[in-house]
Amino acid sequence: MLGNVYKVLKNCDLVHSVAEDVINNRQTALDNQEPSATSARKYLDFLDILLTAKDENGKGMTQLEIRNEVDTFLFEGHDTTASAISWILYSLAKYQDIQEKVLAELNSVLEDRETDDLQWNDVNKLEYLTMVIKEGMRDHCPVPFIQRQFTKDFELEGKTFPAGTSVSIQMFGLHHNETVWEKPMEFIPERFSKENVAKMDSYQFVPFSAGPRNCIGQHFAMIEEKIILAKLVHRYKFELDPDHTPKKNVAAVMRSDNGIMLRISNR
Ligand code: HEM
């Protein structure tokens, strides 16, 4: 037990030191007005904003406050997309016809190109891949639930939940609820066609949560997923390992207890 605690603390130290290095390097660049510092660039990025932010009394954020924000972004931004991409690849391996359609769309967008590097304008052209990604996030739900605590008494359908009550919002459950979705256990990318999306309730598909604290990185995440999946499917064929079935582990981020094993071959 103590060994595990030690391991967690040691790993936290490593993660903190990575974040601190990034922060310190940027602070030095800002102090020395190096070319990478904000004034020489067109846009401020997230770290510039944190490092230069001041409150109404002219006080900036402490090192620890900045590191906490950087940690949040590192983890919210990494494990989530890694889970989404891995589970979507699993579905593409399972449904070869869908993988073929993704490939056909990519081939038509990349026709006559020398490389398979996607251009910014290509991202919006990949409509079928977008539907596959959304269906993957409905079915596998990379963040399967979120939690809240009531800060004041809350009434719902005649019942009062006292302040302090903890609640879980089960997005995975919602995404598989038969009263909300037709054939929820089937993988059907077409349910996310433009016409079908227009008819959906705005709270029936919420992989990035909803409301004022929804995911800050959702547009970035969708683009990252598209670019990575496009490149992978364009270069490799993914097939299931017939001897392996991943066992979903509903944690803060959707994992597999026994990994996701796929067979990968060059195209
Ligand atoms: C498939 C990928 C992703 C999924 C499924 C996802 C999902 C979510 C969800 C469900 C929340 C709400 C959490 C809650 O209400 O308790 C959230 C919040 C957040 N996400 Fe994401 N996320 C993804 C990618 C990203 C990326 C790439 C970034 C940053 C680069 C990011 C940054 C954040 C941050 C900072 C919050 C907290 C926002 C706040 O509390 O106001 N996420 N995300």
Automatic annotation (TrEMBL):
Domain of life where this protein originates? Eukaryota
Instruction: Identify the keywords attached in UniProt to this record, alphabetized.
Output: Heme, Iron, Metal-binding, Monooxygenase, Oxidoreductase
Residues that, per the record, bind heme: 215
The answer to whether keyword Oxidoreductase applies is yes
The cross-references to Gene3D superfamilies, in alphabetical order and at most eight, read: Cytochrome P450
In the record, the note on similarity to other proteins reads:
Belongs to the cytochrome P450 family.
What name has this protein been given in UniProt?
Cytochrome P450
Organism (species): Potamilus streckersoni
